[in-house]
């Protein structure tokens, strides 16, 4: 179905199945279009990887979803709700959680304490994730195990490795029980072993959450991706499996900028 045939009602059937429905989204910074008529759709339960050259607009895209950046034009529906009606604070309550690139953990507190502070008091997070009979301590143990920090749950978080801090941050966002988890370049600076563990972590989290991951590391992308969206100059260049996008001449051209030379 083409976007123009979709009615403007947030409740229309065509948009009902989409977790995210983005139509003709433009973000201008002093006339420069970081996003330029971007169309993007995502269903509930997807683990979507977004790639694209530097400056493609990937981070701006996440900034729009968290309401940090306000669109110049276009429509963004999350669970059928027009995001324009929500502030940056409210969008978190609506169910969008973001893991930032720089860790925001309390270095002097333990991983367990950091997770406790992140619990979403408005949602019965633990009943949602792990069944109603578990106590919150048992559930914290489960989350610590999921993020691979059960053996380091009691040491100051400042002593964790770079990768472990990233996992703790992911755990802190999960503790808020988001419907959509946004992660920008999670494996930057990680060792190969940490990168593999992060792929496994995202596979586990994807069973319970919808996730958008931005990442450059194509080996990592290959290990987790079902569907990849390629951004270029603020637009959606193409979408498909890792193989499809890596073999797409348009993608090869924007990444190498030398496709013409090979003809
Ligand atoms: P990516 O994450 O894909 O590398 P960004 O979304 O960070 O790209 O940036 C897209 C483009 O928008 C870049 O050219 C960047 O310089 C520009 N840009 C991003 N944020 C701002 C801003 N606040 N003011 C002006 N230009 C910006
Ligand atoms: Mg970026």
In words, what does this structure look like?
The chain has about 260 residues and is α/β, with parallel strands linked by helices. It contains eleven helices and ten strands. The chain has helices at about 15, 60-65, 90-95, 110-120, 125-130, 135-145, 160-175, 190-205, 220-225, 240-245, 250-255; strands at about 20-30, 30-45, 45-50, 75-80, 80, 95-100, 180-185, 210-215, 225-230, 235-240. The strands form two sheets. A six-stranded mixed sheet has the order 6-7-8-3-9-10, with helices on both faces. It has a four-stranded antiparallel sheet with strand order 2-1-4-5. A hairpin with a 2-residue loop joins strand 1 (about 20-30) and strand 2. Helix 4 packs parallel to helix 7 (about 160-175). The chain is globular. The chain starts with 12 loop residues before the first helix and ends in a 7-residue tail after the last helix. Residues about 1-15 and about 260-263 have low confidence and may be disordered. Bound molecules: adenosine-5'-diphosphate and magnesium ion. Magnesium ion binds near residues 58 and 59.
Please supply descriptive tags for the structure shown above:
263 residues, alpha/beta, six-stranded mixed β-sheet, globular, disordered C terminus
Compact summary:
It is built from 11 helices and 10 strands. With 263 residues, the chain is of the alpha/beta class. The structure holds adenosine-5'-diphosphate (ADP) and magnesium ion.
């Amino acid at each position: 179905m083409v976007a123009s045939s979709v009615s403007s009602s947030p409740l229309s059937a065509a948009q009902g199945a989409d977790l995210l429905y983005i139509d003709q989204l433009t973000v201008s910074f002093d006339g420069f279009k970081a996003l330029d008529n971007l169309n993007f759709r995502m269903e509930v339960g997807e683990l979507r990887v977004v790639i694209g050259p530097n400056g493609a607009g990937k981070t701006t895209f996440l900034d729009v979803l968290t309401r940090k950046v306000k669109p110049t034009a276009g429509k963004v529906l999350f669970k059928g709700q027009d995001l324009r009606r929500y502030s940056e604070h409210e969008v978190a309550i609506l169910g969008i959680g973001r893991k930032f690139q720089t860790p925001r953990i309390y270095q002097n507190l333990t991983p367990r304490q950091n997770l406790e502070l992140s619990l979403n008091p408005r949602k019965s997070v633990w009943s949602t994730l792990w069944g109603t009979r578990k106590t919150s301590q048992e559930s914290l143990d489960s989350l610590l195990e999921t993020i691979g920090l059960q053996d380091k749950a009691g040491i100051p978080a400042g002593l964790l490795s770079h990768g472990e801090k990233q996992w703790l941050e992911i755990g802190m966002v999960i503790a808020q029980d988001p419907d959509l988890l946004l992660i920008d370049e999670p494996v930057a600076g990680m060792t190969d072993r940490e990168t593999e563990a992060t792929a496994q972590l995202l596979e586990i989290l994807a069973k319970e959450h919808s996730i958008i991951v931005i990442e450059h590391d194509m080996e990592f992308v290959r290990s987790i991706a079902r569907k990849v969206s390629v951004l270029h100059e603020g637009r959606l260049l193409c979408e498909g499996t890792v193989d499809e996008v890596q073999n797409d001449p348009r993608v090869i051209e924007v990444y190498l900028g030398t496709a013409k030379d090979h003809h």
